[in-house]
Design goal:
alpha+beta, Rossmann fold, OB fold (Dihydrolipoamide Acetyltransferase, E2P), 6-stranded mixed sheet
Length: about 350
């Protein structure tokens, strides 16, 4: 296990600032998720940690040692790529053992270390197969075993679940999290999928435009979003933002309920809600509409669980409400979180 410190790192490609002054620290044994849309700089940051890219400025420290100028092989990190990058002509055993050969590990240790990694990831019966004979989930586990067998200080995972179907991704998340907890290896995981980030990360580093927008636990970044980007990027759907007198009023769709469904003891803010569309999702309903005094192009969404049976029809006007504790306020110009404002 090791700590990772990223100190004011920038990475420029000509005029493009792929990483723009990022500073963060990863704790020993932590599972940190780098989350953001495509092109936000998260993969470039991971490649910089691995030594595959060299920063334009700033420094990378692993376990307190400055590794900024060191090649990848000298950093004691292992990386799992989105494509898995398995050797198609090699068996599972030989794919996993390859980094041990490259490191010059004594041959008498190979079998024990490979079989220990295979046991952790349920690959014992697949060691004689080749990648083409494996499912997507099995290939993903082989890639993880190949990284794990080195016993690295830091594990870097670049969207390793993105090639799996939805059902397999859910089970793979569980397997990966169990595997990381068992080993206690410091792990940095890159994804654009907020469900993966919220479900797996001890903390989430949300990135946009090469900048770190917020760092915190899943609960912190979701409920106490630092700006409008984080507020709208996290959540499905994201936070509603309503223009008010020089600021934006925010509230999550699941906290936007018919007035009759609100707890009687709550302090609430009520809105007239002109319903435009209803989307049925089985366990939930998404209600799309316009809040009173909001521009016609600002659509708000209410997410109602199936237990809320209050009838909602299209083209009707209803009274909805949000508890004061769930209201958030943002500066209209900067998008940054601000203190509560007069409603």
């Amino acid at each position: 296990m090791a700590t990772v410190d990223i100190n004011n790192v920038t990475k420029h490609f000509d005029d493009v600032r792929a990483i723009d002054g990022v500073t963060l620290s990863v704790q020993e044994g932590e599972f940190l998720v780098l989350l953001g849309p495509s092109g936000c700089g998260k993969t470039t940051l991971m490649r910089t940690i691995a030594g595959l890219e060299h920063p334009t400025s700033g420094e990378i420290l692993i376990d307190g040692r400055n590794v900024t100028g060191l090649p990848p092989r000298a950093r004691d990190v292992a990386m799992v790529f989105q494509s898995y990058a398995l050797y198609p002509h090699k068996t599972v055993f030989n794919n996993i053992v390859f980094p041990l050969k490259a490191q010059g590990i004594p041959k008498e240790e190979w079998d024990t270390r490979v079989r220990e990694a295979a046991q952790v990831l349920g690959l014992e019966k697949l060691l004689d197969r080749r990648p083409r004979q494996l499912s997507g989930g099995e290939r993903q586990r082989v890639a993880l075993a190949r990284a794990m067998v080195r016993d690295p200080k830091v594990m870097l995972l670049d969207e390793p679940l993105s090639n799996l179907d939805a059902k397999l991704r859910a089970s793979a998340r569980d397997e990966l999290q169990t595997f990381q907890r068992r080993l206690g290896t410091t792990t940095i995981f890159v994804t654009h999928d907020q469900v993966e980030a919220m479900g797996m990360g001890d903390r989430i580093a949300v990135m946009s435009g090469g900048k770190l927008r917020q760092l915190g636990t899943p609960h912190e970044v979701y409920t106490e979003s630092a700006d409008t980007f984080v507020a709208t990027f996290l959540g499905s759907p994201g936070m509603n933002l309503i223009p008010r007198n020089g600021y934006l009023l925010g509230f999550r769709p699941e906290n936007f309920l018919p007035r009759e469904a609100m707890p009687s003891q709550s302090q609430i803010e009520t809105f007239r809600f002109d319903v435009k569309r209803v989307e049925y999702l089985g366990a939930d309903r998404l209600i799309y509409g316009i809040v009173d005094h909001a521009p016609d192009d600002v659509i708000s969404i209410a997410r109602l669980p199936s237990a809320v049976t209050f009838p909602i029809e299209v083209h009707e006007n209803h009274e909805f409400a949000v508890a004061h504790e769930h209201l958030r306020y943002f500066d209209a110009d900067t998008g940054l979180r601000i203190s509560p404002q007069p409603l």
